[in-house]
Amino acid sequence: MCRRPLHARPTPRAPTGTLARVLLCAAALVANPLAAQTESPPGSPPGVAGAPATAPLRFFALGDLPYGESEVAPLQALLAAAAVQAPPFIVHVGDIKSGSSPCTDEQLHTIAGLFRAVAVPLVYTPGDNEWTDCGRWTAGGLDPRARLARVREVFFGDPGVLRLAALGVTQAGEHFPEIYGFVMDEVLFVALHIVGSDNGYDADAPAAMAEFRAREAANRDFLTRALASPQGRDARALVIMIQADPLFDGGRGPRGFRGFKAQLVDLMSQFPGPVLLIHGDTHQYRHDHPLLDPTRGAPFERFTRVEVPGSPFMGGVWISVDPRAAEPFAAEPVYAVSLDSVGSE
């Protein structure tokens, strides 16, 4: 069954059986009827909305998918159905495999192929399952830093996979191509590389700590420079995308997230507009205000968090950004079913 079933556009040569039902669910759920009010007219470039001209910037975000081979085809259908609505881009916040499944080049290329086939740019930030967790015995017992190098090569070394150039992105540098930003409709978007598993922090592993410190510094410096840039100073809203749940409800929390959370608190006094953090990690949809102002002991109302759902739930979130609205970051989760939960035929 689907949650929130909507009208589905017919698709040619549809598969039969369970897979057909899952693909149909994905197409139906992502095809939001409200999108008809803001669809681009024929021939318009991505992200240029039709009437009304002041329509909010709207894009689709998902993550923690796929977690098995049975979820690859449904994910493909979900991405394709979202792209039909002509968002300027689609966001995937990482974890393109389960943490215990083998880390292989074949798996990376499979997902890269899905991303390449999407009709709009893919804004992707890596998750811990792609590299940090590859040291697990069940994942192959591999060197996480070597796997990270492969992730960078496969997804960021070939510009045709994500097509970020179409968004005019600025990257942190050749050593950290996965850290980047761009501006659209006076909204500053920043993708940082912050992952689960305590963000790769391991005090007992010198190589892991060296990687962590370098990446943390690159994240911090890029966000600082993006906000200080002319476009950053003129931005009316800020959207940050990471993979990890930084555990706002855990006080200072694990060491791997402390620096990032401290920077978030600092930027609330530097950036006057609304701020959105999009992440995955726990596979549970959330739309809330979790960042506490230490001077008041109350949440920053200008700071919003959207966590995307994840496997075994096949779905994502439509996000609309309107800095002038009472709710600057409207979120609408949509779900289909996972083949893992219904079996296969």
Overview of the molecule:
Helix content is 32%, strand content 18%. The protein is of the alpha/beta class. It has one domain (57-342): Purple Acid Phosphatase, chain A, domain 2 (4-Layer Sandwich), CATH 3.60.21. α2 (72-84) links the parallel β1 and β2 (90-92). The two termini are 16 Å apart.
Runs in which pLDDT lies below 50 for 5 or more consecutive residues are: 1-53, 338-345
**SS summary, helix count:** 10
Q: What coarse outline follows from CA principal-axis ratios?
A: globular
The counted number of beta strands is 14
Q: How does the helix and strand content classify structurally?
A: alpha/beta
What is the CATH H-level superfamily? Answer: Metallo-dependent phosphatases
Order of helices and strands: HEHEHEHHEEEHHHEHEEEEEEEH
Per CATH, what is the topology?
Answer: Purple Acid Phosphatase, chain A, domain 2
Radius of gyration: 19 Å
Q: Main sheet?
A: 7 strands, mixed
| CATH level 1 name | Alpha Beta
Mean pLDDT: 86
The percent range for strand residues is 15-25%
* Count of discrete domains: 1
Spatial sequence of strands, sheet with the most strands: 4-5-6-7-8-12-9
Termini separation: 16 Å
Helix-strand layout with pairing:
Layout: H1 17-30, E1 57-62, H2 72-84, E2 90-92, H3 105-117, E3 122-124, H4 144-156, H5 159-162, E4 170-171, E5 180-184, E6 187-191, H6 196-199, H7 206-228, H8 230-234, E7 237-241, H9 255-270, E8 275-279, E9 286-288, E10 292-293, E11 298-299, E12 303-307, E13 314-321, E14 329-336, H10 339-342
Helix pairs in contact: 1-2, 2-3, 3-4, 7-9
